[in-house]
């Protein structure tokens, strides 16, 4: 029940996450990839993701409940202005630890702007996930910015890259647009698959 999603709590680090009960799916992406918009579109609730845009909260992990023992997790965006290197390293450590240690995590939704997919951060996240056999679902966001042909070519290129890396069993991909509401049903299907015990 994605429309009934409610904000549960924030955690400043992986070590202060709520207890592991039920199942979780996490959302990650470079800042400006369209993560807040996607969560808003998915849940039909513009106030939800705004929570995570509150200044000071951007570095927090935000937990949303979408049902009994079912959570969506909004991971901090990456690429905000001038984050000190030490902080960036700590943040990276946090993210990789979360992927490694969070047993109730079922999958990772990784958002990338369709106009420049597979940046350094994206590959890093995929590598960490694949290392611990965590499934990844790539959303090529703002698909409305490209015509159908180029959008499909980008999707195929990303899939091909995953095949070449031998990880296409773990990493799936789709186009998505919050503006045009395209790909919402495919995303819901994937999330339901992951969140069903
Ligand atoms: P976040 O930093 O990843 O949470 O990204 P936001 O959701 O705040 O979106 C960043 C910018 O991209 C905003 O200006 C949005 O209006 C825009 N945006 C997000 N999704 C879409 C989309 O599907 N289509 C278009 N054209 N713009 C989008």
From TrEMBL:
Domain EngB-type G, residue spans: 21-197
Any one GO BP annotation for this protein: division septum assembly
Any one Gene Ontology molecular-function term assigned to this protein's record: metal ion binding
Record carries keyword Nucleotidyltransferase: no
Domain of life (superkingdom): Bacteria
Coiled coil feature spans: 81-108
The family this protein is said to belong to: Belongs to the TRAFAC class TrmE-Era-EngA-EngB-Septin-like GTPase superfamily. EngB GTPase family.
Role summary: Necessary for normal cell division and for the maintenance of normal septation.
Protein name as annotated: Probable GTP-binding protein EngB
Organism: Marinimicrobium koreense
């Amino acid at each position: 029940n994605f429309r009934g999603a409610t904000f549960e709590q924030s955690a400043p680090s992986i070590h202060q996450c709520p207890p592991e009960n039920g199942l979780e799916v996490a959302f990650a992406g470079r800042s400006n990839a369209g993560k807040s918009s996607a969560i808003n579109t998915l849940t039909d609730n513009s106030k939800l993701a705004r929570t995570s845009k509150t200044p000071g909260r951007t570095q927090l992990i935000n937990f949303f409940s979408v049902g009994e023992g079912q959570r969506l997790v909004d991971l901090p965006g990456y690429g905000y202005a001038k984050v000190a290197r030490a902080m960036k390293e700590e943040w990276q450590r946090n993210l990789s630890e979360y992927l490694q240690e969070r047993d109730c995590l079922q999958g990772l939704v990784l958002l990338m702007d369709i106009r420049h997919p597979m940046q350094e951060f994206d590959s890093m996240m995929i590598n960490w996930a694949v290392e611990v056999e965590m499934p990844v679902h790539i959303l090529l966001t703002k698909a409305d910015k490209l015509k159908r042909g180029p959008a499909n070519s980008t999707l195929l290129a990303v899939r091909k890259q995953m095949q070449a890396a031998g990880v296409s069993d773990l990493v799936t991909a789709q186009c998505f647009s919050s503006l045009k509401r395209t790909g919402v049903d495919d995303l819901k299907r994937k999330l339901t698959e992951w969140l069903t015990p």
